[in-house]
Amino acid sequence: MICPHCSKNLLRRHRTGSKCTYCDRTFAFDPKTNGLQLHDLKVRRQAARLAEGGLSYTSRQLWYAVSRKKVTEPVQPLNGCGCGTFVLLTVAVVFVAAAIQPPKEVFAGVVIGAVALLVVANIVFAVLRPILAARAEIHPPVLEIRFRTMLSDWRRVYGASPPGMIDTVPRAMVQAPEAALVCQDGSVLDCLNANGVPHRNKLALATNAAGVPPEVPVVLLHDASVAGLRFAAATRAALPGRVVVDAGLRPSTVLHNRGLLRLRGPRGAGAELRRHGLSREEVEWLAAGWWSPIGAVPPAKLLSAVDRALTRTDRARAAEVGFMTWPE
Length: 328
Description:
By secondary structure, the protein is of the alpha/beta class. It has 13 helices and 6 strands. It folds into 3 domains: 12-74 and 139-158, no CATH class; 81-135, no CATH class; 179-321, Dna Topoisomerase Vi A Subunit, Chain: A, domain 2 (3-Layer(aba) Sandwich). Helix 1 packs across helix 2 and helix 3 (81-100) packs antiparallel against helix 4. It starts with 39 loop residues before the first helix and ends in a 7-residue tail after the last helix. Strands 2-1-3-4 form a 4-stranded parallel beta sheet, sandwiched between helices.
């Protein structure tokens, strides 16, 4: 890794105890000691991208950003099983030869049987790998709560959070709001709040329909997921007669935008999904367990989507647009 202070290339022996032996300064992350393979320069780069244009971002947005490379790596189930089987069979054959000392004919049969078993095992592994890969869950290798703990190491070294990251910011209370935005993910509301969206647009923020002021039009934000679709449907049902613009992530948006993060959980039931007016491709994608978190959308794209949604909150246009198209 490169020392974030003196830019020297550090081998393992040059960075023991999270300290550079050249400049004698401490760094926060060693890529060999954390599941995300983070180092300080990588965190700085990701932080700079999220904060581009002077925007603020949340720890959740940073967590997803630094996890992106890991969750996009190909899933390799049963990796190493072929070699492991070869080693076990070799040990077994050697043990038989040394302990039992069978006749040559018997030993030859044991060797042939072991080779045949190895061939069969590798065929089975080859068949199972694509099946298991298609069903394997995909998520960041480090839990969010663990990542937040890791950030305390950054603060200990540098005295503050990564540049542009917000900590706890009180939600803005807007007088006489002209619209409301509802999102279950509180970190999304924190990002909008920190970047001045509520005051700039006279926008009330809420995590559910109960927090929406009366009469004002509503913008919905949610994950591209089964749970996100349920949330959107429940919010609409709780606000009858209200103008509601669904600006949440739609599965088709994720399918056609490689820049959006894709995760995979347990497989779902397609029957329920068909009630949400989705295409066959979207239903199959969600039923396979795929989803995309709204909390991973970078601040610039998030603010752009909200601004576009707020221009569509008049009743006539809202009836026409349904789901909103996200910016590339």
